[in-house]
Structures are given as C-alpha cells and as structure tokens.
Specification:
The chain contains twelve helices and twelve strands. The chain is of the alpha/beta class. The protein has a six-stranded parallel beta sheet with strand order 2-1-3-4-5-6, sandwiched between helices. A six-stranded parallel beta sheet has the order 9-8-7-10-11-12, with helices on both faces.
C-alpha cells in the first residue's frame, strides 16, 4: 500500500472516531470482528462499511470488540479484532449469543495453505454461515463444510451511493468501446495476462474500435502500450471513472465473491468475464459474456450485443442495499429463533 497523505490520514482518523462515538441503537447489539478501513482495501472492507452503515440506520448498535454485552457477532476471517479463543470463551459464557460467519475466501485463490483450516475453525462457533457465492460454498463443502448446517449464499453488492448508472456514458458507435478493469492487488491471478494481451491486440490494430482503461495496481513488469492507466482510487472518484466507460472486463481467476466487477456493473457496465472466475460467472452471466481462451471473441460479442446486455443489467443490477438487507434478515432470523429468555 502507498503511504497515505496527511490529509488522508486525518480523514481516516475522523471516520474511525465517528465509528467509536456513533450512538447505539436499541434493536439489537452487534459485534463485528473487523474494523473498517477507509481506503482502497478490497471487497471485504467495502462489505464491512456498507453493513455498519445499514445496521446502524436500522437501529442496531455496532461495535468492533467483545468488551461489552452483545446479542450477535458477525465474524470474518481478516484482521480480526478478537481471536478465535476469545470468541469461543465469550460464546461459552453466553449461550444465547448468535454468531454469523461470513466466508469469502479459500486457499486456491492465493495459493495459501492454511486459509481453509482457519475458516473451518472459526465456523465451528457459527450459528449460521454465509458464503459469498455458490461456487465457494461447494468448494468448502468438498473439503469440510456440512451443507446440512444453517447457511446462505449472499452475493456481494457495492455501495449504491458511489456505484450507480446515473450519468454513465452511452456507447454510440463508431465511438470506441471503452473497456475498464480495476484491482487493488498486483497479483497476476487478477487477470493481468489477459489485460496485457488485450492491450497488445489494441496496440497492434487487431481489436479496432476498442479502448482499455486500467485502474489501480498492476505487476510492474507490464509496460502498457495502448491502455489508459489510473492510480488506485475508491468510492465516489472510482464510480465517476467507471461511468466514463462502456463495459467491464475481468479475467480474475477463482474469485470467491469479487467486488470489482460488481462496482462496474452497478455503474451500468455489462461484464466480460473469465469462465474460471470462481463465483464471478454465477452473477455476471446474467448481463455479460464469458471467455476462457478467446477474450477477443468475447469483446466482439459484447460489441454486437451491448444494448441487450446493458438492458438486462439495468433491469436487475447487483445491489449493495439488497445485499445488506439480506444479511440483516439473517441476523434477525438468528435472533428471532431464540427461545424466550
């Protein structure tokens, strides 16, 4: 991560102070295992920010530790503010507390060796498990998860105050079709070989009428030839960049539940996606086209069917507010199912 500017640091400190001082609601008391990060930090952080705002708007109090009494604990595996041992001890002393475990990772995505085990350990305390895609649920079911246990699949949605189609650029041929992708990681598995290939085809004239925009970070070995490149941005500035384009391309592999293409889709951009994208195809197939070995063919299909794909997207976009409502219903159901005290 680049060193944040002093102004950015002040903004983040103020935001964190607002988290600590925010008034608590009286519907139910929620603890979350991760503290919000107010910067370009990937999909998990964007999910967390949305959930905190939504729960508080609906009258729930939200905190990020186990120092006080709570009714429900929303657990993710990243940067936890309390350990698994602390969580087990807390629940053992308070059998009425319900634990909702959100699973959005696995070992295959980052070639790690202990993520699956870590997730299984945390899930042993869960009252209900939420997977961010069917693909991810099936992956873990093949290894350790019992699908007979209470669980849901809730796809990711982006913040609709930043990612929306209002004011988006309309594609009018012969204007070039502007493709865009953005990533906070420079890992090659994010699809950079494909983006480099598309960039070369555009530069060589093999994809006439196509532009490529790349936002965020990328492997330093890449020397872009035709692409317009932008540094990492998030929130409203990112939404404004995305809305200047016409379609989104993601070649990221084995994504449990990617947020990047969802942000593009919510800005009105139909999606070109890799068939080996993990949970991505089960969302993007409703408003886009897939590829495995022929990204140029998928781009040409997008050009031929752009209006059709965009109409399907605008009729039923992925939605951050719908996502938040579904999580809140899981929390409500878990608490409502408790026997009377």
């Amino acid at each position: 991560m680049p060193t944040p500017s002093p102004a950015h640091l002040i903004q983040r400190l103020r935001a964190r102070a607002a988290d600590l001082l925010a008034p608590g609601g009286d519907v139910a008391r929620i603890a979350m295992s991760q503290r919000p990060v107010y910067s370009s930090w990937g999909g998990g952080s964007q999910w967390l920010l949305q959930m905190v705002r939504h729960l508080r708007a609906c009258g729930y109090s939200v905190r990020f530790d186990l120092r006080r009494e709570v009714d429900c604990i929303l657990v993710t595996h990243k940067q936890t503010t309390f350990s698994l041992e602390e969580l087990k001890a807390y629940v053992a002393e308070r059998p009425r507390v319900r634990v909702i475990h959100r699973i959005n990772d696995n070992d295959i995505r980052k070639s790690s060796k202990d993520m699956d085990r870590r997730l299984a350990d945390f899930d042993s305390v869960a009252s209900h498990t939420v997977f961010v895609s069917q693909w991810l649920r099936d992956y873990h079911a093949e290894r350790w998860f019992d699908t007979g246990r209470p669980h849901s699949v809730i796809h990711n949605g982006a913040d609709p105050s930043h990612f929306h189609p209002l004011g988006a650029a309309a594609w009018a041929p012969p204007e070039p079709l502007r493709l865009v992708t953005h990533h906070w990681s420079d890992n090659w598995a994010k699809g950079f070989k494909v983006y480099e290939q598309v960039d070369a085809m555009i530069a060589d004239g093999a994809l006439p009428g196509v532009e490529l925009w790349v936002i965020g970070r990328w492997p330093q070995e890449i020397a872009w030839r035709a692409a317009r490149i932008f540094g990492a941005v998030n929130g409203a500035p990112l939404g404004r960049l995305l809305r200047q384009c016409h379609a989104y391309i993601t070649a990221s592999l084995w994504e449990p539940g990617a947020m990047h293409f969802v942000e593009g889709a919510q800005c009105g951009l139909p999606v070109i996606y890799h068939e080996d994208g993990g949970g991505t195809p089960e969302v993007a197939r409703h408003f886009g086209t897939g590829f495995r070995d022929d990204p140029a063919g998928a781009i040409q299909e997008m050009m031929a069917r752009h209006q059709e794909f965009r109409a399907a997207l605008l009729a039923n976009p992925p939605s951050g507010d719908q996502m938040a409502v579904r999580y809140r219903r899981v929390v409500q159901h878990a608490l409502d199912a408790l026997p009377p005290a």
